[in-house]
Amino acid sequence: MQKLVLFYNPVSGHAAFKNKLDWIVEAFQRRGILLILYRTKKEGNEDFVDFLREVEPDGVLAAGGDGTVHECVNLLVKNHLDLPLGIIGSGTSNDFATYLKINEDMEAYFDKIAAGSIRRMDVGRVGDKYFINVASAGMMTCIAHEVDRRLKNALGKMAYYLKGIGEIPKFRAVPLTITADGVKHELEAFLFVVINSGVVGSMKNVAKDIAVDDGMLDLLAIKKCSIPQLMSITADLVAGRPVAEKDGVLHLQAKTFQVAAVENMQSDLDGEVGPLLPLTIETVPQAIAVYC
Fold it and tell me: Is residue 199 a contact partner of residue 98, using CB atoms and an 8 Å limit?
């Protein structure tokens, strides 16, 4: 009998996931799979590593939002636990799961997990931290961390958009130096994102030809422009139209990026607070296997 560990966040997505637990346990039991539960804690889950080594499962399922997936990926990759990862999106934002289209039909996805259907994928690394979807910094980065939890639980993704719209008049560009595989670019930009997938902040298709297994990451920076131009780019993003080739957007693809700013800027890794700039962002090819 296969054994899978479910690493689940009990408070993500309106704290409603725990109401689905019985259905999920039954779904895997029906497929001849033993599901072992691990309930995440707010302040660190380092003991999950020992838990996995004791249980010796065939794979891990992360249930929660992007932050839960981010934590699970870091625990696995940092500790050299090469276990396939499944993603059950149940948070406010589930960008990586959305990109892979793995949560559109859960019964079909569970069939793929039972069959052991996996695909090896790249991750990004910043210092000793890893990200599976996005590293970013700039005027939008703080919004995810400033949205009140009660508002996020009530409005979901809309809370981020409302907060972002309110901040647009305060936006200002910051001088950046971006080096992509040794080639230097100097510009003023409102923000930049380094992405592994094509879904960022619940916005789809931000650039064409994005691949999670090509050994490369993509950087998009929104250059200094007028507020109407910025609103136009934002409208395209929200509508799911690619913006990488638009005037006012810098698009680079590389294995390694160095990003420096003339002032202190906080970064964000998969929606979680990251280190201050400057950053060195590296691709770690084929670092993790994902059920899909």
Answer: yes
